[in-house]
Input
Amino acid sequence: MTGHFDSARILEALAERRPVFHSEADFQFAFAWQAKSRNPDLAVRLETHPEPEVRLDLELIAPSGQGIAIELKYMTRRWSGSVRGESYALKNHGASDLRGYDVVKDVVRVERFVAARPGWSGLVVALTNEAGYWRSPGHGRVTNADAFRLYDGTILSGERRWGPNTGGTARGREAPLVLQGAHTLTWTDYSKLDGSAAGSFRALVIPIGSDASPGGSSAPCSMT
Output
């Protein structure tokens, strides 16, 4: 039997249970738990090192041996409050240009991993309550971080590099990133905690693989 891993349904169900998370590790574990609940036959592997110098947040492996490689990012703006009796105090991560670089780097990593494994597909999932990630400021000015912006409707493709006047702010992230495919970025509503600027979360899902449509939400996976 062949089926599809529907990340949109996973996130929809997860939002009902967990509209907010304490940390990226909390998000990763909850996503894996929800995926396993919906697809009991999948083996779950967190924080794997499938080969030297390669790390993946999550692998979901079908009985056939094929699977899905997943990277997850949780990028927050400061918010504190109580949700269903549980207290949260989210940090202000800031540096959206650097975090954008990290997301693009995740796409490159998953592309390479999937390309080397026939029958595998991949996902990069980002969750944030910072509107600056999905909403373009509209000023039209070219910035040194344009290649790593994740605005809704952006098409990620080709070589992505910093602008010429970046300076030392990108230390540790200087290397250009080269994407194998073209990925249209589509953000969707995840949850609404309150009416404040930081009270709404949106999710970005980037499917990767020969059968995954840019901007789509499902990743193919053999369930045999």
Notes: Residues 96-115 form the longest helix (20 residues). Residues 211-224 have pLDDT under 50 and may be disordered.
